[in-house]
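Support case: user asked for a sample of complex input and structure output to validate their parser. Sending the pair below.
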Amino acid sequence: MTRDQLTEKILDIKREKGLTWKQITEAIGGMSPMLVVGALLGQMKLVKPLAAKAKDLFGLTEAEAAMLNEVPYRGMPMPPTDPLIYRFYELVMVNGPALKALIEEEFGDGIMSAIDFNMEIEREPNAKGDRVKLSMSGKFLPYKYYGAEQGIPEYGFKEE
Amino acid sequence: MTRDQLTEKILDIKREKGLTWKQITEAIGGMSPMLVVGALLGQMKLVKPLAAKAKDLFGLTEAEAAMLNEVPYRGMPMPPTDPLIYRFYELVMVNGPALKALIEEEFGDGIMSAIDFNMEIEREPNAKGDRVKLSMSGKFLPYKYYGAEQGIPEYGFKEE
Amino acid sequence: MTRDQLTEKILDIKREKGLTWKQITEAIGGMSPMLVVGALLGQMKLVKPLAAKAKDLFGLTEAEAAMLNEVPYRGMPMPPTDPLIYRFYELVMVNGPALKALIEEEFGDGIMSAIDFNMEIEREPNAKGDRVKLSMSGKFLPYKYYGAEQGIPEYGFKEE
Amino acid sequence: MTRDQLTEKILDIKREKGLTWKQITEAIGGMSPMLVVGALLGQMKLVKPLAAKAKDLFGLTEAEAAMLNEVPYRGMPMPPTDPLIYRFYELVMVNGPALKALIEEEFGDGIMSAIDFNMEIEREPNAKGDRVKLSMSGKFLPYKYYGAEQGIPEYGFKEE
Amino acid sequence: MTRDQLTEKILDIKREKGLTWKQITEAIGGMSPMLVVGALLGQMKLVKPLAAKAKDLFGLTEAEAAMLNEVPYRGMPMPPTDPLIYRFYELVMVNGPALKALIEEEFGDGIMSAIDFNMEIEREPNAKGDRVKLSMSGKFLPYKYYGAEQGIPEYGFKEE
Amino acid sequence: MTRDQLTEKILDIKREKGLTWKQITEAIGGMSPMLVVGALLGQMKLVKPLAAKAKDLFGLTEAEAAMLNEVPYRGMPMPPTDPLIYRFYELVMVNGPALKALIEEEFGDGIMSAIDFNMEIEREPNAKGDRVKLSMSGKFLPYKYYGAEQGIPEYGFKEE
Amino acid sequence: MTRDQLTEKILDIKREKGLTWKQITEAIGGMSPMLVVGALLGQMKLVKPLAAKAKDLFGLTEAEAAMLNEVPYRGMPMPPTDPLIYRFYELVMVNGPALKALIEEEFGDGIMSAIDFNMEIEREPNAKGDRVKLSMSGKFLPYKYYGAEQGIPEYGFKEE
Amino acid sequence: MTRDQLTEKILDIKREKGLTWKQITEAIGGMSPMLVVGALLGQMKLVKPLAAKAKDLFGLTEAEAAMLNEVPYRGMPMPPTDPLIYRFYELVMVNGPALKALIEEEFGDGIMSAIDFNMEIEREPNAKGDRVKLSMSGKFLPYKYYGAEQGIPEYGFKEE
Amino acid sequence: MTRDQLTEKILDIKREKGLTWKQITEAIGGMSPMLVVGALLGQMKLVKPLAAKAKDLFGLTEAEAAMLNEVPYRGMPMPPTDPLIYRFYELVMVNGPALKALIEEEFGDGIMSAIDFNMEIEREPNAKGDRVKLSMSGKFLPYKYYGAEQGIPEYGFKEE
Amino acid sequence: MTRDQLTEKILDIKREKGLTWKQITEAIGGMSPMLVVGALLGQMKLVKPLAAKAKDLFGLTEAEAAMLNEVPYRGMPMPPTDPLIYRFYELVMVNGPALKALIEEEFGDGIMSAIDFNMEIEREPNAKGDRVKLSMSGKFLPYKYYGAEQGIPEYGFKEE
């Protein structure tokens, strides 16, 4: 059994039972719906109590629940051909240089973590058409200047 | 003169004058610093009054200011090799499937616009290490079902 | 079941029953044949009443009809190797720069939507050989200049 | 001198003189603005009388005008990273399969020519936001069934 | 059933019956062996009477014969890894610039059609080793200068 | 000096002097115009007497003539974006499988040489539109079955 | 049945019977072990008597033996990810320019054939560690200068 | 001035002065030689006091020293064609799956940071040939399970 | 049976039996857990006694154990999309130039072997968060200067 | 100065002085002509006495000679478009699987070194056309089974 086969099975059951992601993530609960959906689509891990709930909800085998508890090989093929996902890719492609310039000026030499990271998605009502609102927050991780000697900062935080 | 040459010139002047992006975006003002920096890095357009301010700040020629007022050929090479920008790419690669599932369930068949779109970036103080906070909001654009007949929705909003 | 498997099944039934796309799109109706065919080939969604008609026409299961009602992962592999589709790709490759220049001069900084978009295809009789006529119309979406201050346009429409 | 250098020079002069594409294409005239702009951007050829007008308008040398009269090596890098051009690419990627199915059913085995082809672009006023209207028409070219024997069609037009 | 599966089945039967392409193309006849073989390998369409003959020869089902009558999604993966096919690819890669220069000088601005096109292949006896002789002929298709005004050629034939 | 720079210089002189390829290949002579043009475009070598004629015709330096006498690093970037050259690429992509099947059945296990190879290009007058005629002939090179023992053919010619 | 499936079956039998390549190539004989192994791995053809021996050794069907007698679609995916094969790829990547310079200076304008080509592989005992010895020999094939006139060499052998 | 131009200038001066990396990194000091060399080659940032020392050592301008103090656009082209660097790439390609399995089992769901990371390189004397010793240590960063509810771990550390 | 199918089977059994890699590598033993895990994931070979232990542990067939004793086609697809493995790829991409500079200065012209190579992975306790510690050591292999004459070093060790 | 610029300069001087590679490699001597030519083309290093000879022969500066003494960033772009070099690439692509099978069976688990490696190239006279003879020999490097316990081989030599 591959993770793709498990994802396909879960989507088959979701379709047959007429379940929505909302119903599924409420039934499994435990953490952000984004992560639970991500796990069921093969990109995230479900910790044991959540994998057990998914097992009950979808009528999975023990082995299938165990697979949901494993860390998958993450990442979808790129560039995305689907327009919805492509728009996010485009945002990186167009705003990447400005993000780099502004984050580095504000924080110093480092990155925004994609691991110690939260994302929330909400509907933002708007008279001209509702908007998709994404709030993201990732820990700033400064580059380590290893072997730093006295007087030299050990991490790449903003220099005075 | 290519846009890349203009970007290089602007960065040379920024370096020689010891300007920060904060000083630059305050001097030019007019819209989000993200967009002003994006324009100076060759990804966005500056409307005429802002291009005029950039001309003064950097001592540009008329032709260079006119170029800043043009819409550039947007987009940087992908995949990004720089770690800071790559993390955003990775977020799309790993969360793409869940974003698609959740946005489509909430809004219907369509996309979040990458054009009618805002982004704000802030420092989020945190005892365990400050965080980079990104707030994004894009208009939901439903797919048009052209040729829709009576009783069929004209746009791909959420079906009841 | 994957969407590709459903497409293959639908094409098998179409072939066995000797159906034409014209017969199929007339039977399903509801919106442009282009969109109905797109959905049956795995690129578009059929709203529920249309999915129900497709179910009857092809003798599909409930789950298969439900899958037609889902938004597929859109996009075929690129570049297209098939000559018919390649010609459209070539038109973008050769005319892209001129389209960008003319649309931006006429409308301002933005794009033609590929989502709020219609396409019609017709046979254009011609003594030297009939022609394929494509009429397309997409909403112009101006770039949003977020954080726009007083006196600065909020959207990238044509500057005076 | 390469064609790219000539394009860059023309754009420099256009910027310095504050010319618009509309002024340029009216001054040069002779054929569709789309083609004239395409030629000045290095994708099309200008026939001699038009190249001569371009020479006058931009103050080009004889050799530069001669280069505008040459057929360039056509085609821009793909996939397009610029959002405006990408939307056209996406339209091919998403609608390619349906276009192939419908054109082949209507016309037979062949392609829409990208050479014996017209394109017109217009602003379509619309209360919900103006639209970009593209009208395209290309000659249908049926595949040649060479070596066709008696009773077998010589070209791939629609079979009865 | 996919076209690849049909091709594989036909090759299995060819192998089991010990048929040669010569026997097959003589039995099916109707047009150039190159096209008939192309169709059986999934690159061309067989018109109905030829598909019927292929059905008899290979003992295919009605649906399989109908599939042979469909226009396939043409094109093999590139670059070709097989040496025989690579040599043709190399001929394009090495001679492409000269072909472009000479065809455009002789005919004007346009292309050699790959659709209204014949190809013949023959053995050319030669004392130093027989040669593969390929004769190709494609209709010259001049670029259309749409919107051409009086005095401007409508098509890109050779300028005087 | 690179070969590309020499090609650019030659094209500059050709343009300034208003030379045609026909005039150039007649002046240089010695072998097929296809090869002479190929050499001037950086894909072929000119033997010394021909390089000397090119030197006179274009007013080249000794070193430039010597460079024309060198074997260049052959091959243009692929896939070709230019429509004229792409059509040849497409012919390989679509007809490759049939060419392989038919050449191997007629000749045995081997290839058509792309080195011991001739190509001629002619205008083929035709009432429906003149055609580009290409005649190609390449030596068949059978695979060598090295280490062949008695009774086993040493080369991959057609088996009886 | 595809050639890959046949290769997989042969490897399964080899493993089950505990056969070595040495035993296999001795049993089949007829030509270099390199070629016989190549054929069993799907890259070469076995002439009929050798295919018959392979049939006996592996207990293949008639159709499978017939497939071994066919010329496969040659070539593995590149670049090779396996370190053993990559080292050969690297040798081409690093030594390619010098090989081109030296072969062309010694032989003239042409190539070393990869078709009329032998390769032998041997163990070369060495006190510091045994070495893999590869001896290769390919016929030099000079470029044909077609249309060569009197006084011009017809082939690209070394010029005096 | 681009960072590549600065790197080229620094290497020119290094070569002209006959400096070694050892001399350079001792003169600049402040942190690991790996990082200092990385900065001079355009992959790392030098904090101000170190950039000042580099300025003195190489005779750079103020602007050049300021550029060394900037965070560069990191990352070299991949895959590496140079054998020395390729071996590291190969180690990732071959050992990636085992590294993932073992790190996740030992630490839980997360990654080894490439930012809060040290690397040391040493010569390891060995009678059979000295060895290159690399010691690396990166902080383990557990995935954040955002929206974690009571009883669910907030981070992807090893589950009991 | 392919190696991928065997890997999938082993992972299925691991999951069903609830085995950890630690238990597996202790049961099989014989060499570094990194290598044993690598072999079970299809990247390394298990020598016969270890393959026999794996056979017992997982209940494999003789043929499956024989396959574990074979050298697999090594290498996973690149670039890695999984964040854990990508970080190692990034380390090569960012530190490659400095590694090359420092290894060559210390050792001379050559590479660090990826074959005669050890790797150890350990948990490094740290108050700010435990770290992943990797110790690697590869034999330095100097380039061979073949054909070296008297006075010229035969290998590319550091020059004095 | 980049290595490419130095290569271009050396080739310019070679052309102007009418030098052959034979004259050059005899004048520089010291090791195999293949390596000396490789160094002058930017793929190998020249040890100091040879770099000094190259300096004299080509009239280089001290800095240029020092650059020849540096290890270059090796590797040309792949796949090679030049037919001469492509044939070597094809040999790897077609014979890679058999080389892997035979080397591993004869030597065990490991690779042929591309570093401790010799290559000789000779003209092999032959009545049917002279042949290019390449003799290569690379040290066999067995995989290290690190952490090998008693009774387990430490290196991947052929198992008994």
